[in-house]
């Protein structure tokens, strides 16, 4: 697939974006109670970048750059760019990240995030063993990483 179709480099430079993600991005894996789910838990994936509200224009440029996601208020003075849709993660974020490698330990968080995404695609979260593994992966990412 042609990289020009994956993101809009007329908006932001791809290497700047990947560096910004290295410093400010978050690959979040959530396991929360939901009685409507088979095992009583729901697994949610979210990629986000949080910034002060003064950088609102930049946050909206990220939506245009990736061709997906949205901007929401985190607090009265913070905004978040978020991608939660699993199809958008696979179609837009993953190809970009795979072609523009992170340089910090955040690369490990991305690898775990992508691994859990594949587990969801394979419906592994619907088994007690799969759900337990996802919980362990989630606990070892971001601030839980040693």
TrEMBL record:
It comes from Circinella minor. Residues 18-117 form the Homing endonuclease LAGLIDADG domain. This is Homing endonuclease LAGLIDADG domain-containing protein. It comes from the Eukaryota. GO terms for cellular component: mitochondrion. GO terms for molecular function: endonuclease activity. It holds the Pfam family LAGLIDADG_1.
């Amino acid at each position: 697939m042609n990289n020009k179709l994956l993101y809009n480099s007329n908006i932001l430079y791809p290497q700047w974006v990947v560096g910004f993600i290295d410093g400010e991005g978050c690959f979040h894996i959530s396991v929360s109670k939901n009685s409507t789910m088979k095992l009583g838990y729901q697994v949610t994936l979210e990629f986000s970048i949080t910034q002060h509200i003064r950088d609102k224009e930049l946050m909206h440029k990220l939506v245009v750059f990736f061709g997906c996601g949205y901007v929401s208020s985190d607090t009265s003075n913070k905004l978040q760019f978020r991608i939660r849709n699993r199809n958008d993660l696979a179609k837009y974020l993953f190809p970009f990240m795979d072609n523009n490698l992170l340089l910090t330990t955040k690369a490990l968080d991305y690898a775990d995030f992508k691994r859990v995404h594949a587990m969801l695609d394979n419906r592994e979260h619907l088994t007690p063993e799969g759900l337990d593994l996802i919980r362990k992966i989630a606990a070892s990412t971001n601030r839980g990483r040693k």
